[in-house]
Design goal:
Arc Repressor Mutant, subunit A; 18 strands; 4-stranded antiparallel β-sheet; Creatine Amidinohydrolase; 2 domains; 5-stranded antiparallel β-sheet
């Protein structure tokens, strides 16, 4: 994490992120479309002094994470119903805000219509998040954090998701190299070696399921999320000089870099960039050009994209998340009003 002069940015980003979730909650009603909810959240972020650190995502029922609508609001791969909230849906909203690259990341789960069919699972997911946060003292081994996160869900009869993790945050880096377990991974698990670091920021986000496997899987193709990110490993200037990119591809890459740096961005944010170079193109033609340009930027490893994720055995998924700063005396939750 950067020095204390940047702490105000972390705190402010966390406040806006939490206020966004609070503002979204009353909007989560039967009949509202997924894209309406997403656009409401992102407008709120921008109107309150932040920028989205990643596209606001929505995950309904067995969907776990990493989906945001595209510019045409096409259906999620394999989703047969309309992308409209229905009474009884279990909905996860994940909101990220950045201020000068400093990130507040938080999420909640709501049952549409308050039918109380999933109250215990939702409660367990929230308690799992809070139990993990209580362990965030400098020097605590990560396996102890994971065991604490798992216990409330296990006690309530649900499975913690084992292959989705929390993550360390750094300025302009949403996933900064440390993964936070949400299950009892054991002290000899090499994937979660190390300890909680003082003065670091972490996104703590346990997921649980009423399925049996406790695993998530990819949905559809590699870009089923409609979310992209600049890898930071390839310079568009060098790719242009080496003729790996044509001028239009390089210009698009430059635009992405200037607008989003290394933070994830939505297809629906970036797609309008093609209006200027192709003012007369119809929707089909512009979509074809977008697909070709993005495919090229991925092939040269300038961009990466994400799968949307779902429960492997179609169980309902619950999730809660806070961003936490680890002080010498323990955890300080940043995603508070």
């Amino acid at each position: 994490m950067d020095d204390q002069s940047g702490m105000k940015f972390w705190i402010d980003a966390g406040h806006v992120a939490r206020r966004t979730l609070d503002a979204v909650r009353p909007e989560l009603q039967a009949g509202k479309s997924w894209v309406e909810i997403i656009e409401f959240a992102e407008r709120f972020i921008r109107r309150n002094g932040g920028q989205p650190a990643f596209p606001t995502t929505i995950a309904v029922n067995e969907i776990a994470a990493h989906f945001t609508p595209d510019h045409a609001d096409k259906k999620l791969h394999g989703w047969e119903d309309e992308m409209v909230l229905q009474k009884g849906d279990v909905v996860k909203i994940d909101v990220g805000v950045h201020i000068n690259g400093h990130i507040g990341d938080n999420a909640m789960t709501v049952e549409i219509g308050n039918g109380n069919s999933h109250t215990e699972q939702i409660k367990a997911a929230k308690e799992s998040r809070d139990a993990a946060i209580e362990k965030l003292h400098p020097g605590t081994p990560w396996h102890e954090v994971g065991a604490a996160a798992a216990q409330p869900s296990v006690d309530a009869g649900f499975q913690p998701i084992r292959n989705l993790c929390g993550h360390k945050l750094e300025p302009w880096e949403l996933h900064a190299g440390v993964s936070v377990p949400s299950y009892a991974c054991g002290k000899n698990n090499n994937g979660f070696s190390g300890v909680v670091e003082e003065n670091a920021c972490y996104a703590i986000e346990p997921f649980n399921t009423n399925g049996e496997q406790g695993l998530i899987e990819n949905i559809g193709s590699s870009n089923s999320s409609n979310i992209y990110r600049i890898t930071g490993n390839v310079s568009w200037r060098k790719a242009l000089a080496r003729k790996q990119l044509k001028p239009l591809g390089a210009q698009l890459a430059r635009n992405f870099e200037e607008r989003y740096s290394t933070l994830p961005f939505a297809e629906r944010w970036a797609f309008p960039m093609l209006e200027k170079p192709f003012p007369e193109a119809d929707e089909e033609s512009r979509q074809s050009k977008w697909n070709a340009l993005v495919k090229k930027l991925i092939s040269v490893r300038f961009l990466e994209t994400y799968h949307a994720l779902k429960c492997a055995d179609n169980g309902m998924i619950g999730q809660f998340e806070h961003t936490v700063h680890v002080t010498p005396g323990g955890p300080e939750i940043l995603t508070v009003p």
